[in-house]
């Protein structure tokens, strides 16, 4: 039997879209990018993964498909996994994107078809560039702590880099910027003069910010970037808007600074931003492409054991691809 023919058992969220009936998402283009500052508060859509796990999907969202090159954001936890196996995401494929593994609590063991084996810890960067094709698994180690809390994020690769060789990077030490009651870790790109060692393919920024109780700060931004803030825990006031855990505030472009305040104790947020992504693309399941044919070919390659390689060391079968929807996946949109 083809190992990809059996449905997976219950899992916790990893770097995979485990929705068994994923909907195609048409992303990119600049028609939805605000050239002026805005304050659009988005709530996470609950998505059932496996039998018992629910994540909050912030991107793509109704009316908001991307923020810069950030094209997919799930936030999960804190989940009590003390008596549970925790994250158990079987081997699955990716193409045309980068995955950013970001934890606030817990441990995740990454394995991929390149032979990489790496345990990612809280506030360490696990950055996988799929390029033309890669597969990987993620799981909590057998001996793990009580809590699992984090976010999974994808970055779309621009056309000139989307067929690049796949790679995996792990960076245990990341640059930090401190001041005005804010402690910022730069995950990807640059912020306030500090630059992440992670390889980026578009002008982008991702940062994890801890706001001390009573913090009242102004964060420097680039006016030609569009931005959003994801609340991980606690609540913060962002440019006058209260943002609570599990929600995302889209901010548009045109800002040179961002007022931040923590009124109810310390808060933890993520800043996501980048140059608006002009290319139009199609995202379905774990693939980012430019046409229906690309997506269909990638699905067939995964199901027949071609191109994406094998992940060794995971005790279980790979995840089969869902059936393609009964419609043609077609990128659309217009320039702003």
TrEMBL record:
The protein's required cofactors: Fe cation
Assigned protein family: Belongs to the pirin family.
Gene3D superfamilies reported for this sequence: Jelly Rolls
Family annotation (PANTHER family): PIRIN (PTHR13903:SF8), PIRIN-RELATED (PTHR13903)
Taxonomy, superkingdom: Bacteria
Residue ranges of domain Pirin C-terminal in the record: 207-307
Protein name in the entry: Pirin
UniProt cross-references to Pfam families, sorted A to Z: Pirin, Pirin_C
Residues noted as binding Fe cation in the record, renumbered to the chain: 92, 94, 136, 138
Cofactor binding note of this UniProt entry: Binds 1 Fe cation per subunit.
Keyword Transmembrane helix assigned: no
Region (Disordered): 1-31, 314-336
Keywords: Iron, Metal-binding
Ranges where the Pirin N-terminal domain occurs: 59-155
Molecular function in Gene Ontology: metal ion binding
């Amino acid at each position: 039997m083809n190992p990809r023919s059996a449905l997976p058992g219950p899992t916790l969220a990893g770097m995979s879209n485990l929705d068994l009936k994923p909907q195609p998402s048409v992303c990119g283009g600049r028609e939805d990018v605000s050239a002026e500052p805005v304050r659009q508060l988005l709530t996470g859509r609950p998505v059932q993964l496996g039998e018992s796990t629910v994540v909050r999907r912030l991107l793509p969202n109704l009316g908001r498909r991307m923020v810069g090159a950030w094209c997919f954001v799930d936030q999960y936890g804190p989940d009590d996994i003390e008596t549970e196996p925790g994250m158990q995401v079987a081997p699955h494929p990716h193409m045309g994107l980068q995955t950013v593994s970001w934890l606030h609590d817990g441990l995740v063991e990454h394995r991929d078809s390149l032979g990489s084996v790496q345990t990612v810890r809280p506030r360490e960067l696990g950055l996988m560039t799929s390029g033309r094709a890669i597969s990987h698994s993620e799981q909590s180690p057998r001996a793990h702590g009580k809590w699992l809390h984090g976010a999974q994020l994808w970055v779309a690769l621009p056309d000139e880099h989307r067929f690049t060789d796949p790679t995996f990077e792990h960076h245990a030490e990341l640059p930090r910027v401190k001041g005005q009651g804010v402690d910022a870790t730069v995950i990807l790109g640059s912020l306030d003069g500090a630059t992440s060692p992670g390889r980026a393919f578009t002008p982008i920024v991702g940062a994890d910010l801890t706001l001390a109780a009573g913090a009242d700060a102004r964060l420097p931004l680039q006016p030609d970037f569009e931005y959003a803030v994801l609340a991980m825990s606690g609540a913060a006031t962002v440019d006058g808007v209260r943002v609570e855990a599990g929600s995302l505030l889209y901010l548009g472009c045109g800002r040179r600074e961002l007022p931040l305040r923590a009124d109810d104790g310390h808060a933890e947020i993520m800043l996501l931003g980048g140059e608006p992504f002009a290319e139009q693309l199609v995202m379905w399941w774990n693939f980012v492409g430019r046409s229906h044919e690309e997506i269909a070919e990638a699905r067939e390659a995964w199901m027949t054991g071609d191109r994406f390689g094998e992940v060794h060391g995971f005790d279980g079968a790979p995840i089969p691809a869902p059936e393609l929807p009964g419609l043609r996946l077609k990128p659309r949109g217009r320039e702003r």
